[in-house]
Amino acid sequence: MFVSRLIPAVISLALLAAPAAAQDAPHWSFAIHGGAGVIERDSLTPEQDAAYRAALHRALEAGSAVLAGGGSSLDAVQAAIELMEDDPLFNAGRGAVFTAAGRNELDAAVMNGSDLTAGAVAGLTTTRHPIAAARAVMERSPHVMLIGEGADTFAASVGLEQVDPAFFFTERRWRGLETALRAQNLPIPSRPAGAPGPQAENALPAPPLNERKFGTVGAVALDSEGRLAAGTSTGGMTAKRWGRVGDVPVIGAGTYASNADGCAVSATGDGEFYIRASVARDICARIAGGSTTQGAAQAEVDDALALGGSGGVIVMNTGGRPSFAMTSSGMYRGAVSSDAPAGVAIYGDEDLRP
User: Fold this and answer.
1) Of residues 170, 216, 238, 293, which has the active-site annotation?
2) Three-class SS of residue 67?
3) Whole-prediction pTM
């Protein structure tokens, strides 16, 4: 059994290895994650490993294309997360896990570091891209967080694509729900209306991590104007009940960005503990107080998750240096900048590589 908290992960790009004084900050920088959990080499087949790495590279390409073209950090974050929301490999958007009632309820948040504006949504069921809805709340409403039917109604009112709830259905997530409910001696609901039959199972590599808690996707970015942004999107926990909402849409817990503090953060893991410890905001406070980005990230997840659970974070500073910290054996992650090629990694002891 992997003893996660005993082995902090310190992941670096080539640009991190060189002395800081010997190089200029990149013009732009971008990092992503696709969830953290018990992800060890013997838990993935070569095909599964390759599928996740390819998906991470596609997300990096989407974000870097925006930044390389002079686009904003917010646009880059949204572009990459929307792509991951459409990828059934991840627990966000299409491919999200199910509640105990057999529904997909989606949460997301986005934050602009240059002015501390933020938007969040929780419990969406018909909006194709929750991250777009979160940004619309930030930019097109007087509020910070909207939930449930009202959030979907708002998203539709501003022109965001609406879909039948069956759009988010995947067979493997449904089977994960059945397993979780049996373990809790809870009834298994009827298959959602419009869902394909069991014989239509999509040929995707089975997820190796604990889907009850992990699989969130997120991105952090620094654009050529020096603006930081962070965004996160998730389907939450398999078999969640009573309208449970985790840390992702709670600004300061799973998502936070502040140029003044010098950081942008997106988290993945046991949301209840991230909320109690205000993980994302505390990382920024540590950095503002003089900690290194990596040191602040690892210290915060170690301290917060000592309360219980497991997970990880990605952090971007105003110098364009991404950091990754976790208390789990793996985290799907990647980074790219204007002076370093795209690299991805899965396992806790693995450096980012092309």
Assistant:
1) 216
2) helix
3) 0.90
